[in-house]
Amino acid sequence: MPDVGDILDGYRLDAVVGRGGMGTVYRATDRALETTVALKVIAPHLADDDTFARRFREEAKALARLDADGIVDVYTLRETEQALFFVMEYVAGPSLDAVLQRRGALPPASGLELLRQVLAAVGHAHASGVLHRDLKPSNILLHDGEAVITDFGLAKILASDAELTATHEQLGTVAYMSPEQIEGLRHVDPRSDLFSVGLIAYEVFTGRLPFDRSGSDFSIQRAIVEESFPPPSAFAPDVPPAVERVVLNLLSKDPSDRPPDAETVLQRLPAPSSEEALLLASAEAPASPDALSPAQWAGLATALLLVLAGTYVGVRATLGLPPLSFSAPPAPPPRPPILSARLVHRRVRPRRIREPSPRPAGSFPRPAAHSPPPKTPHGPLAPLPRPPTRLPRPPLLRPPLLQAPLPPPRTRNPPLHVRRRQPQRTPPRPRPLRARRPRACWSFARAPAPRPCAFKTRSWDAHR
To answer: What letters, b where the CB count within 10 A reaches 16 and e where it falls short, cover 366-382?
Structure first.
């Protein structure tokens, strides 16, 4: 298989548009005309089959004759040594499958306009003798409010040749096949494509298929062939009843119960309005990269709530609190008093107001000019009401700056166990009187001979 950037018979491969069982679709540039085209390169194991190559050439000629607004144009068929491919019109627009995955079910008006365009294109192909046999949302492109069907004729080649169906694997999507196509009937008619159109319309109006698509291929085939489908209004109540009847008629198990052609289906649909084309154009517009779908918004909101809850639980666990608490928050602790070295509480007695003594009868009142003004307390000097009870004296607080403890307060009569025991004092013992010898007194007025003093003598005599 060629890669992006290769030159394939004068076409430069720019990008890969899609891949499938039949091959790969590239967005390419015609080097001679400088135009953008689409190239579908067939898988090498299918290109080597002579029977497949012959049938493919015949169908390519028939597809080249189709000229309708809702069908992609096929320009040329090329066979080179590198690959077998054909050149198609390049449609710049999203597929219906991408729109349904991004936006879900379309509004009834937009879905009805899309159903009309698909039926018109399929009816034109059936009138030209071409059956698609692989109709599905991924093969329908939306461009400027118009639905364009691509990949015509490939599925018909495989289904119309019994040897190829037995030799190669079944190509296409099983979920959009008709019951007769699943049963392997050779002779199928345009009603098989109408059944696929009914499945596409059911998914457009409800956003899902009438059966569980997540199962195996066998369970899907059994549901298409045997099980009955619920009406679209079971999943989308706003679907018009006339449209619901047409969709259920297209999904009939028996081909004879379906409409014979696409023109009959168009006549049974309600009349179109001018606003439906505008609604389809708005539905195909790609969402801006900044816009989020409802599912993405829901996921973003859930992630934000989980982050906030985790932060809340983590903060409470750090503070030593239970993770979840539905009780009222605890009251804040009382404000500590102002610390000071000494707190002096002064009790202010309210000033008593004396009532004027009653005057005796017959006395004249004092003139108003000499009467003193009434002594009514007012302003900041008004007396405070006396408290009903005596408040206890608050304990003496030690300021934080003083490191040494304060001495205990002095009391008048401390208890006995607090009193300090004073040591017993004994009276001093009297000192004994010692006899003293008289001193000699010298007198320089008389003879130098010493003589005793009279005072000392008397004192001596007295002690003796």
So the answer is: eeeeeeeeeeeeeeeee
pLDDT per residue as tens digits for the range 183-228: 876 678 889 999 999 999 999 999 999 998 888 888 999 999 999 9
Buried b (16+ CB within 10 A) or exposed e, 8-36: beebebeeebbebebbbbbbbbeeeeeee
Choose between 118 and 419: higher pLDDT. 118
β-pairing, 11-19 vs 23-30, is antiparallel
Distance CA 118, CA 130 (A): 15
Average pLDDT over every residue of 33-52: 83
Closest by Cα among 100, 287, 130 to 201: 100
Q: How far apart are alpha carbons 191 and 188 in whole angstroms?
A: 8
Query: What angle do the packed helices 96-103 and 190-206 form, to 10 degrees?
Result: 20
Secondary structure class of 210 (helix, strand, coil): coil
Is pTM beyond 0.90? Reply is: no
What dihedral do alpha carbons 231, 235, 240, 243 form, nearest 10°? -40
User: Is there a contact between 74 and 60 (Cβ–Cβ < 8 Å)?
Assistant: yes
Q: What is the largest CA-CA distance in the chain?
A: 190
d(CA 65, CA 60): 9
Residues 144, 281: contact at Cβ < 8 Å?
yes
- 120-121-122 Cα angle (round to 5): 95
- As its CATH architecture, domain 96-284 has Orthogonal Bundle (1.10)
DSSP classification of residue 238 = T
Delimiting residues of CATH 3.30.200.20 domain(s) in the chain: 7-89
Q: Would you say how long the chain is, in residues?
A: 464
d(CA 84, CA 411): 120
Which stretches of 54-205 are assigned E, i.e. beta strand? 74-79, 84-89, 140-143, 146-149
Q: Where in the chain is the domain with CATH 1.10.510.10?
A: 96-284
Q: How far is CA 33 from the centre of its chain?
A: 51
The half-sphere exposure of 389 on its side-chain side, counting CA atoms within 13 A, is: 3
**What distance in Å separates the CA atoms of residue 405 and residue 329, rounded to the nearest whole number?**
39
Cβ atoms within 10 Å of 62's Cβ, excluding its own: 16
Please list the active-site residues. 134
Amino acid at 222: R
Q: Using CA atoms, how far apart are residues 337 and 214, in angstroms rounded to an integer?
A: 74
Retrieve residue 124's tokens.
């034109």
**Domain 7-89 class in CATH:** alpha beta
Q: Which amino acid is at 402?
A: L
Across 31-137, where does the E strand assignment appear? 35-42, 74-79, 84-89
> Can you say how many angstroms the Cα of residue 44 is from the centroid of all Cα atoms in its chain?
48
